[in-house]
Amino acid sequence: MKSIGEKCAVFGIYGKGLDVSRLTFFGLYALQHRGQESSGIASTDGKEIFCHKNAGLVAQVFNEETIKGLPGHIAVGHNRYSTSSGSGIKHAQPVEVEDKSIVLAHNGNLPSVIQLASFLKSRGVVLSNVSDSAMITGALHVLVKEGMEIEKAVEEIFPLMTGSFSILIMTKEKLIALRDSFGIRPLSIARLNGGYVFASETCAFHPIGATYMREVNPGEMVVVDENGLKIKQIAERTQKLDIFEFVYFSRPDSNLLGKSVYGVRKNFGIQLAKEYKINADVVIPVPETAIPVAVGYANASGIPFEMGLIKSRYIHRTFIEPEQHIRDQGVKLKLAPLKEIIENKRVIVIDDSIVRGTTSRQIVKMLFEVGAKEVHFLVSSPPVKFPDFYGIDLPNQGELLAANKTIEEINTHLGSTSLRYLSYEGMIKSTGLDESLFCTSCFTGQYPVDLRERKREVVYLNQAHKAHRYGKI
Ligand code: AMP
To answer: 397-401: which pairs have CB atoms within 8 A and are 24 or more residues apart?
Structure first.
């Protein structure tokens, strides 16, 4: 089955007397960067579950009227990320079951759904062409319909879920948060006026005035109902946060594993400056993610920082597909070079990652077009050589530039004067945390959750290629 869970945002709130759907709207707004394809909120007043979801950005999906149509004291919300594998309203979350007794919002992906499928089959449930998230919801529903308490059902189904998941489940009485035993995708808890809030990233707490408590630990189930908050460790915990959260996904004002994302990205830049000394006139970031990296690089190297590329704030991946002529403009729809900064300069340009190389190639071309003398491309992560199965939409290995080319070949492909990647060791060191706390699969090919039937999609490198693995040439 093709994955359709993918990199997304979840947000949930339990609070008597709070306008929970409006707060969820603002929470999802703060998490918009994690998914721009569709958005949804479900709420309950204890008697009924209400849900509104549609394709588009949070601000396009909700208005005063739709928020008013979501009453109650519990709510869950979801932003879905745009992927090649199925788009539009069909896959918008929260997932609902037909009798509207359970809704579920999922960030992550299950590479293997064989166990869930055989469980459902054993109960006579046939769910064809549905997402991994819908299968989890369906499995929970089967057990609840048989009379099991929802918490018990979660514990029963947990071992059948092979992959990454930060999940929020809502019934008419309870809000449940659940994180896979490796904690691959983030999830945190906060307090608000006697109630509790859950969010993929801590940046969603500040706008609604919630106070951060802690992360939901890997393998933990947190239940909130009228009796308050209950925490249960339901599986052995081995923290393996996806390091790509620090590299690319998370907002700089979020904290992960107690570290500021901004601070870690700045360290990436400082580390890059230690690893590579380049004679250049100006250092510019590819906005937004690489801005703190370029600040760190500029501070450490003494080369002036400039915003040489300006990003349009309002271009997103939305359900409005640009027509072919406009799509051919590619990166120019998003980024404009500032000639007065770049012309006749030796430019260092920094981006967070190279995946297919489409963006970086166009950026190099654009910088030369406005008169750069040299373009030195720096990347604040090591080469991405392995596909992702845990919800970050990295393409199959055949499309990953660094899986198929050496660094010299990539440099030639991009047309840059030079190309340097942050070393693997340098990336880990910059986090200030131990390597064992991370899932680094897209760089190392080491996958903490067994890929089962998807294993055959990964090709490991021969010794000659391994020499290039950590970005040294
Ligand atoms: P590419 O053009 O395919 O090499 O993609 C690299 C660019 O996409 C970089 O500018 C990254 O900031 C960004 N990026 C990295 N990973 C992802 C992802 N999973 N989804 C969307 N964009 C990404």
So the answer is: 397/457, 397/458, 397/459, 399/355, 399/356, 400/355, 400/356, 401/354, 401/355, 401/356, 401/357
